[in-house]
Design goal:
71% helix
Length: 140
């Protein structure tokens, strides 16, 4: 029987996180890139690059992987919550799914993709914290 370690949990969570990135990105492509502001597109692209870097770090076993997971996980969860789940209070920083016109292309899949992404963001952040905590309590 295989023992579950914080490192193996981080790898499994990173795989789910990668799938969530693809699903959320697919929804943006389905809706059309013009459905969001240039600012949301730019920030989303930056988030994607950091997220992909984090996944690579995790699977290479790099020592920075847990910290990257914590950073990108919590930052992404906050960002996607602000952009998609809050009302349109933030102007060009909003792609709110609340009270959107039909032309925005928001569907049940959009909601699933955003919520899946946020859950995966939180999961990778917590998995990263678990690895960091295990390193701190392990004998040197």
């Amino acid at each position: 029987m295989t023992e579950t370690t914080p490192d193996s949990t981080l790898r499994a969570t990173a795989a789910v996180f990668a799938v969530a990135l693809v699903v959320h990105g697919a929804d943006h492509l389905r809706r059309g890139m013009d459905a969001t502001s240039q600012l949301v597109n730019a920030l989303g692209t930056l988030q994607l690059l950091f997220a992909l870097l984090t996944v690579v770090l995790v699977f290479r076993g790099h020592s920075a992987a847990p910290r990257a997971a914590v950073f990108i996980g919590f930052a992404s969860a906050a960002g996607f919550t602000i952009v998609h789940l809050l009302p349109d209070w933030f102007g060009p920083l909003s792609d709110s799914f609340i009270n959107v016109p039909p032309s925005a292309g928001v569907t049940g899949f959009s909601w699933f993709a955003a919520l899946f992404e946020i859950a995966a963001d939180l999961a990778i952040a917590v998995a990263g914290l678990r690895v960091l905590r295990s390193v701190q309590v392990s004998p040197a």
